[in-house]
Amino acid sequence: MCGIVGYVGRKQALPFLMERLESLSYRGYDSAGVAVFDGLNIQIEKQAGKITELKKALEHRELPGTMGIGHTRWATHGIPNRENAHPLTDCSGRIVVVMNGIIENYLDIKEKLLTNGHKFSSQTDTEVLSHLVEQYYQGDLKAAVAQTLQEVRGSFAVAFISRDEKKIVCSRSHAPLIVGIGTGENYIASDIPALLRDTNKFYVLENGDLVTLGERDIDVDRVDQSKPASRPSITIVDWNPDEVSKGNYPHYMIKEIMEQPRVIENTVLKHLAPEGGIWLPEVNLTDDEIRRLRRIFLVACGTAAHACMYGKQILERALGIPCEFDIASEFRYRNPIMWHDDLLLVVSQSGETADTIASMEEAQRLGVRTLAITNVRGSTIARMADHIMYTQAGPEIAVASTKAFTAQLTALVLLQARFAMACGKLSPQKFGETISNLRHLADWVREVLKLEDRFKEIGEKIAKSEHCYYLGRNLDEPITREGALKLKEISYIHAEAYPAGELKHGTIALLEEGTPIVAVITQDSIYEKMISNIQEVIARKAHVFALTIGTDTCQLEKFSEVVKLPECPEILRPIIAVVPLQLIAYYAAIARGTDVDQPRNLAKSVTVE
């Protein structure tokens, strides 16, 4: 979950490293550091805390040189302090390394290195790499790195420099790393958005690739040099570089919330065929194969897991086959029983979520086809999947996901309609209505965003509490889970979501006078049930904020506050209802003075188990 960046060329490396580290800071911000090579020596500066602390330290010193590597850390081994910050060196300072990930057998390696006289300056697992390379180095950095990486186990991406060579040597093993292709200069980074201002041409590395970067050359080899190496194909990325800036917004999160109508439009239009059907060019399942599906397993983590909960319900209803949802970190450990005619559907914004990747590996081991919904071309999940559907969210920088989530929900509705048509479960008339409704979805979200001030008021009221509960049923229930997660992530208010009928089975004991309750009531079939459930919390003098599309004001008059959302088809109501929950969380966090874009202890992409 850390961020890596590197530059080799003719320009001064430090400005590049600092700017790109800022763009990678959503991957971790416990500490940051840079190492720059001036042709004779490598100078290092690093500081605990966010990158602003590193900037302050660099105000008082110069680091000249045209090659360097940088790192922003999300701490795993060793507390967040300067000693554990990257870059890290060997005993002599000749070899310098940065790493994202975990070395699983580092304690055994460290013990051997200590026996051989090596001295360590940190508590990290990463530092064993620099000392191993030191031990194997005989004038060829690539050879020493290859020998080192054959000795370690784990999920990691690494980059090394030596004061004897003007080259960066890097590799990946189950953690993201990309190479940016320039003219007279080349770059590395943990993900594509960091380099969009420099290039739109990338090599997306495979596990076990060993890459050496010079000013003009990029050499691709393998860590295990007994295996043949081949240069990856060039990936062209068409994201707009301006999408990685905040523009005139105070935070990335509010910018990304406001971008959701455009993102939904792009996701819908990208997947509509000219003749009026749904076009999924990389989901190569025939109608017959779709009809033969026995079960669908939906697997994801975090926000994407809530998308899968929604997807489970709409797919199961439409297709009439069992659909199962699992948290990815638990899926393979329950020894899932899967058959050839099952399908694993995974959802991941980054396409690099470690537990989701492990779930795909388990399904493929069992001979089950995989379908991925992701936002990033060339990501590990995109390359692993048998079938792929890309959302059109563009770069998402805020740690708390918003526009990627609504794009995922939209993609699931498109997928459901395509599968239902293939199975004969959706008449041409109903299919046409579904397409028409999807075309209008962005406009309904725009209508919701016009109510921003109402949600700001609610957020500011909730900000005064230390606890908040979210209630929903049916398709609304996964959305309330997402609302609670957003509030927890960025405001640090304790928030929990429950199916409304479950609250009285214990949790209602926690309610006190004035406890804020956010209720989402958009589903007609359980409208009266929701009203009854909420009357139970009103009787305990809780303060209820309700989001509804109902018109029965008589039944809602006892609620503390009610916001009516635009009328739209039931299946799409959760998509428009989640937008208010995002705004409520955002404004609650602003009222509490937290760092909205970089909440404590979190990182955007979880690339370790």
SSE blueprint and pairings:
Layout: E1 3-8, H1 13-24, E2 31-37, E3 42-48, H2 51-58, E4 67-73, E5 88-89, E6 95-103, H3 106-115, H4 127-136, H5 141-149, E7 154-162, E8 165-173, E9 178-181, E10 186-189, E11 201-204, E12 209-213, E13 218-222, E14 234-236, H6 252-258, H7 260-270, H8 287-291, E15 295-300, H9 302-319, E16 323-327, H10 328-331, E17 342-348, H11 354-365, E18 369-374, H12 380-384, E19 387-390, H13 403-422, H14 428-449, H15 452-462, E20 467-472, H16 476-491, E21 494-499, E22 516-521, H17 527-538, E23 543-548, H18 553-556, E24 561-564, H19 573-592
Parallel strand pairs: 15-16, 15-17, 17-18, 18-19, 20-21, 20-22, 22-23, 23-24
Antiparallel strand pairs: 1-4, 1-10, 2-3, 2-4, 5-6, 6-7, 7-8, 8-12, 9-10, 9-11, 11-14, 12-13
Name its key features.
609 residues; alpha/beta; Glutamine Phosphoribosylpyrophosphate, subunit 1, domain 1; Rossmann fold; eight-stranded antiparallel beta sheet; 19 helices
Q: Can you offer a commentary on this structure?
A:
The protein is of the alpha/beta class. It folds into three domains: 3-244, 4-Layer Sandwich (Glutamine Phosphoribosylpyrophosphate, subunit 1, domain 1), CATH 3.60.20; 252-449, Rossmann fold (3-Layer(aba) Sandwich), CATH 3.40.50.10490; 452-592, Glucose-6-phosphate isomerase like protein, domain 1 (Rossmann fold). It contains 19 helices and 24 strands. An eight-stranded antiparallel beta sheet has the order 3-2-4-1-10-9-11-14, covered by helices on one side. The protein has a six-stranded antiparallel beta sheet with strand order 5-6-7-8-12-13. It has a five-stranded parallel beta sheet with strand order 16-15-17-18-19, with helices on both faces.
